[in-house]
Amino acid sequence: MFEKLSDRLGGVFDRLKGRGALNEKDVREAMREVRIALLEADVALSVVRQFVDVVTEKAIGQSVLKSITPGQQVVKIVNDALVDMLGAQASELDLAASPPVVIMMVGLQGSGKTTTTAKISKLLRDKQGKKVMMASLDVNRPAAQEQLATLGEQIEVNTLPIVEGQQPVEIAKRAMQSAKLQSYDILMLDTAGRLNVDQQLMDEMAQIAKTSNPQEILLVVDSLTGQDAVNVAQNFNEQVELTGVVLTRMDGDARGGAALSMRAVTGKPIKFAGVGEKLDAIEPFYPDRVANRILGMGDVVGLVEKASAAVEKEDAEKMAERMAKGQFDMNDLRSQLQQMTKMGGLGALAGMMPGMKKAKAAMAAGAMDDKVLLRMDAIISSMTKVEREKPALLNAKRKIRVAKGSGTTVQDVNKLLKMHKEMSGAMKKIKKMGGLKGLAAMFGKGGNAEEGLNDALSGMGQGLPPGLGGPGGGGGGLPPDIARLLNKK
Questions:
Q1: What is the pLDDT of residue 439?
Q2: Do 255 and 288 meet the contact criterion of CB atoms below 8 Å apart?
């Protein structure tokens, strides 16, 4: 998401940071380009005007123009303004009520409301340990109730049994009674939608809200509809007191105008973002992280969260034990590659790592993709158990066999072995330098292991760009934020 806006703003700020000093004219010209970039991203005109006015006023202040790094200061001001536009702080679900806490889902037909109901239910059960029941109040769309029941089976969350002929308000009453009797923590009400906002739909929403007294009323809108999504939110909010918004298909929205306009226009926080079709592809919406990603600063906290979710505790402990001994064989490397795949592959990681915009652009252009990881795994799979444990055994004859078995070339095998050798050397240095603190210090100066990773990927992915942080790139080793995280005990 936000790729186009991120690219445009990145170009503007690269030019600003390239100048030693700035004057008011430089800032105003840059803000004019920022204005165009936001309008092209389908951000509401009123929001763009306010944003540019606020940023310009702060950026032409003497403290900025006379600072040592004025370009960086302007970027900081834009980042802060973006965070304010998106909502300043993350807005979590308000579950502070007597159970069952009712969450009412509203929205137009086709916005992804039913799937989002299941996604949030799964999130509440998995992350917060809540006992959740789902109930479909949609008696208009064919098989809508059956769809929710099917999704419930897939995520192992109970749904209210279907009773033919019951109307939405009656279903809501029955759902409340059932949830109370069975001691559910959360009751998710999936209401009906329409192709357009009409009074009949709004009257139905109001009656259901009066009957169920929901703690949260979440509007689900499709981010790909741009400003239409904002208009829908305004119409719903005038009729029903919304508590938040869920934006679906954020992974497919390269512009991001709906997200950037929603809070400013409606005053309602974005609580979740749908980022894929899978039932776990939903994320809490963090304004500061989104702003960082728009400006190419990455999302280090999100990256760490993805890593902790993907890495099994037992595997992490084994790896830590081997690192302490300075051990790192092909099985360990394979484990690392598999964890990268679990975390969403190179594309997902590139969007979250600072300084990785070029790598992500190369993936979008088809210059490289997640098949790189699959090829590496295939090479390791073609090795014997002994070879994986002792890669030094791989002579010319064995390399030819491995290359043929994996459908790659001897050159690819050599690149992977070089990568392993560099990473193995890093592990030995860790042992000598005193664990993770030493690792952070080494990578902070651009360690060889990172160069080995870049070389292997670039060779097998038809040229990984320098932005990944390898030789000649601007990365200079792992980002300082990650280094600081590694420094923590």
A1: 42
A2: no
Tell which CATH architecture fits domain 3-86.
Up-down Bundle (1.20)
Name the token pair of 135.
Answer: 């109930």
Please list, in sequence order, all residues whose beta carbon lies within 8 angstroms of the beta carbon of residue 255, skipping any fewer than 6 positions away: 2, 4, 5, 40, 41, 42, 226
Taking a C-beta distance cutoff of 8 angstroms, is the pair 115, 312 a contact?
A: no
Residue type, 225: T
Distance, CA of 66 to CA of 73 (rounded, Å): 10
Q: What is the pLDDT of residue 367?
A: 44
| CA–CA gap between residue 234 and residue 243 (Å, rounded) | 12
Contact status, residue 470 vs residue 464, Cβ threshold 8 Å: yes
How large is the C-alpha radius of gyration of the chain? 26
* Residues 409, 412: Cα–Cα separation, whole Å: 5
- Helix axes 330-342 and 313-324, enclosed angle (nearest 10): 140
Alpha carbons 111 and 229: distance in angstroms, whole number: 10
CATH architecture, domain 300-487:
Orthogonal Bundle (1.10)
249: Cβ contacts below 8 Å, ≥ 6 apart: 112, 222, 223, 224, 274
Taking the C-alpha atoms of residue 226 and residue 7, their distance in angstroms, rounded to an integer, is 19
- CATH architecture assignment, domain 101-294: 3-Layer(aba) Sandwich (3.40)
Provide the 8-state DSSP code for 393.
G
Give strand pairing partners of 244. 218
Query: Residue for token digits 């980022």?
Result: 275
* pTM (two decimals): 0.61
For β-strands 270-274 and 282-284, DSSP reports them as antiparallel
In the chain, which residues have pLDDT < 70? 1-4, 17-21, 62-71, 88, 252-256, 293, 296-327, 338-370, 426-489
Cβ atoms within 10 Å, residue 154: 10
Q: How far apart, in whole angstroms, are the C-alpha atoms of residue 103 and residue 125? A: 14
